[in-house]
Amino acid sequence: MSDTRRRVKVYTLNEERQWEDRGTGHVSSSYTETLKGTALTVTAEADGSLLLESKINPNTAYQKQQDTLIVWSEAENYDLALSFQEKAGCDEIWEKICQVQGKDPSVEITQDPIDESEEERFEEMPETGHLVELPPCEPAHLEEIAELVTSVLSSPIRREKLALALVGTGYIKKLLQLFRTCEEADDREGLHHLYEIVRGVLFLNKATLFELMFADDCIMDVVGCLEYDPALLQPKRHREFLTKTAKFKEVIPITDSELRQKIHQTYRVQYIQDIILPTQSVFEENFLSTLSSFIFFNKVEIVSMLQEDEKFLTEVFAQLTDEATEDSKRRELVNFFKEFCAFSQTLQPQNRDAFFKTLASLGILPALEIVMGMDDVQVKAAATDIFSYLVEFSPSMVREFVMQEPQQADDDVLLINVVIKQMICDSDPELGGAVQLMGLLRTLIDPENMLAPSSKTEKSEFLSFFYKYCMHVLTAPLLANTAEEDQDLTEGAAKVNPVCPDNFQTAQLLALILELLTFCVEHHTYHIKNYIMTKDLLRRVLTLMNSKHTFLALCALRFMRRIIGLKDEYYNRYIMKGNLFEPVINALLDNGTRYNLLNSAIIELFEFIKVEDIKSLIAHIVDNFYKALESIEYVQTFKGLKGRYEQEKERQSRGLSRYRRDARSFEDDEDMWLNEDEEEEDVADAGLDKCKSDYGKFMESEKVKESQDKENQPKRTTSGSFKFTFSHSAGAANAANGSKPPPSASSSGAKPAAPPSGQAARTGLVGLVDYPDDEDEEEEEENDDEEEEQSPRKRPRLGS
């Protein structure tokens, strides 16, 4: 038998009864020694690998559908389909299959799927027993017809025989004509029987019947039959919805009548499957699987036909980007593209690549840049979905477009900045759109998908671009909500920030931004380090440790944890010079005796420093904060830090090792980092004020609501710097734990906590010292010492 090669797509039916594309190749039909028979073999056109090798078994039922499809089952739950590029190729392979099975190529199905339970009875039947005799198509016989259709559903062989009889005699059109007669006569009993008949015919699950029933001249009558469910008191009005309510909007007139018919048919069949028919859990799992396939292949054909019509797509893009286009028209165009991209997901990977490349060449990204900046919420949402399809398809394509945008243009119109601003200004209280956009931004700045051999410089070029033109837009809300409060000279009271950081929606937004920045710390080295040190970003982030929203405090702590996790000495010196452990330790002490996630996360931070033996940080913590942490004994973390500190001092005293790097000062190291990108800093600063202004305008409406809620919210004491202020003395706290009170700061060799760099120490703020009333409280605690030993507290309650 000679080889016949034809270009095909191979599909398999998955567990969800959806067709999955297995690739494109060339099919041949030839004798295969390993299978001991004639087999269908598909070789991948990309690499020559074997996509399919299937023996043509004499008893396998092959179906030919829609002139270019051959479908069959190889096992109970393993269905296969070959979709041919040309009808001629399908006909030739079909002839080969029929030749092996000894069938006439004019048939649509080669075998009857006989159950084992019926096989013996079938062999005993005379030839005339194979035929299904249909009752006359008359109103008096409708009940008989309904009983016949319902009775065959449990038997695959009888379903097949009935389907052949219905197709061969033109019975479907006779039934639909009878439906019109019954409806005109308002014969409810007859209409109820027709409902059962049409539903049963659909459940026969045969593509040849679907092609008849879903033709233009039949489909609305099919929908009409399905309106008269006997279980309903009044019939549904599906036809009224499809003809009057559901309007087909042509954003650009479609001249191809075949394409127009295919779109109408697909929508109506989808409506029948999703709205009219019951869910698949109501009947057998395999019922209507062919209906899903019918819809799937229709969508593939629609996308292919639209993609090939370059004149149509060009006109759509022209109107989408034309400033004269009305908003309502532009909304329809964007929704069309959203639906178009959704349909494209049915394409096989190679065709999907060609599809998105076609959209890119026609200018989809510049168009999205325009529509995403519009005020229409529906347009923004649709544009975001289209953008997500593009980013998922090719992040590199989006990055390349962004970097090619005119550098002289305003930063505000850059596509990524438009995306960032849409994330920041999401009006949804749950920030659903912002979460989606954050995920897309994360994909775009992920170095893991910047490793294509053809673009080795993509990573460095894009990250330099992002940090120069976009990072200040991303961090604007964070910097606006963590600005240092100004001291009122007349009243001595701190002014409230213009936007309250304790607003829940604002807190959610800041958490998203911190998540992105944390990702940057993990995956970007030089760029994020330079930005953090230039903007003193970590200090601003740690301001959020004071937030009443624990999830936001945890995000700030996670950001610091990732920085310390890098074990980078530049970061460590920056933290020590800025005294940035102070807000973390304040949060730990302020948390009191509560045993929660914040408590555990802070302790894990110090445990990491201890286990990794980060000597510079250990010395800084012990020198400045040990007196405040010494009383925490339910974990050994802080004693362990002290132990490592003492061991290092002992080694130093013996001259066995050096502890500190003295080759150059921290200021020299810092200058090396901060002076390298002064131009980037200038550009970022230029755009920062504008971003703050935009963000402030958007959130202006929140001020009124916040001012109303403020009186009912618990307030913290505000100040220009963090401080250690305890309602109980350190001595009392230690007594509560059964330990001796620490000596005062004046008698200790440890340094008191220094105020943060750049801030003056204020009167009344004393760090890490005991209060004058310590002795009185100590006496009271000593009286209760025996009781405390019997029921020790987890930790001292240091917060008021």
Automatic annotation (TrEMBL):
> Positions of the region Disordered?
699-800
Compositional bias of type Low complexity: which residue ranges? Answer: 729-761
Any one Gene Ontology cellular component term annotated for this protein: nucleoplasm
Which residue windows does the record flag with biased composition (Basic and acidic residues)? Answer: 699-714
What Pfam families does this protein map onto? EVH1_PP4R3, PP4R3
Q: Where is the composition biased (Polar residues)?
A: 715-728
A Gene Ontology biological process term: DNA damage response
Which intervals carry biased composition (Acidic residues)? 771-789
SUPFAM superfamilies reported for this sequence: ARM repeat, PH domain-like
Q: Per the database record, which ranges form the Serine/threonine-protein phosphatase 4 regulatory subunit 3-like central domain?
A: 144-647
List residues of the PP4R3 EVH1-like domain: 5-101
Q: Which family does it belong to?
A: Belongs to the SMEK family.
Listed name of the protein: Serine/threonine-protein phosphatase 4 regulatory subunit 3
